[in-house]
Amino acid sequence: MSKRQKGRRHRSVNRTPRPVGGPRRPHARPVAVPGGVPDAPDAVPGLGRHEARTWDRLRSYGAGGASVDELCAAVGYQPRTILKHVNGLAGQGLAELRGDRWYARAGDGALAVAQGG
């Protein structure tokens, strides 16, 4: 006796007919805004979207600085991700660590370093 299934072996894929019409697009395409994207963090060359979001939130804390936990709650990322972002910002001269709090570096010098100037 054979262990192989006998009979109809072809058409093993789903034979349910596809719906009539073209593919459905559940999301509308974003409309280009001439002045840029509203509600986007200030663009800094060399920063990705997520890192720029972390930096923008860090700047909003001002002179008081922010702990990693405060940034996590404000931005919505995991602590490990926030640490990667602020360490990258520190490498570019945009942030510094004092004690257990991170501070955004102020002045045009920080921006000049970030922009490669």
Describe this structure in words.
With 117 residues, the protein is mainly alpha-helical. The chain is built from four helices and two strands. It has helices spanning 49-60, 68-75, 79-91, 108-114; strands spanning 95-98, 101-104. Strands 1-2 form a two-stranded antiparallel ribbon. Strand 1 (95-98) and strand 2 form a beta hairpin. Helix 1 (49-60) packs across helix 3 (79-91). The radius of gyration is 25 Å and the shape is elongated. The N and C termini lie far apart (80 Å).
Helix-strand layout with pairing:
Layout: H1 49-60, H2 68-75, H3 79-91, E1 95-98, E2 101-104, H4 108-114
Antiparallel strand pairs: 1-2
Helix pairs in contact: 1-3
Compose a concise summary of this entry:
The chain is mostly helical and 117 residues long. It has helices at residues 49-60, 68-75, 79-91, 108-114, and strands spanning 95-98, 101-104.
What percentage of the residues does DSSP assign to strands (E)?
5-15%
Q: What is the number of beta strands?
A: 2
Shape: elongated
Instruction: Specify the biggest β-sheet.
Output: 2 strands, antiparallel
Distance between the termini: 80 Å
What is the residue-averaged pLDDT?
Answer: 75
Return the string of H and E elements: HHHEEH
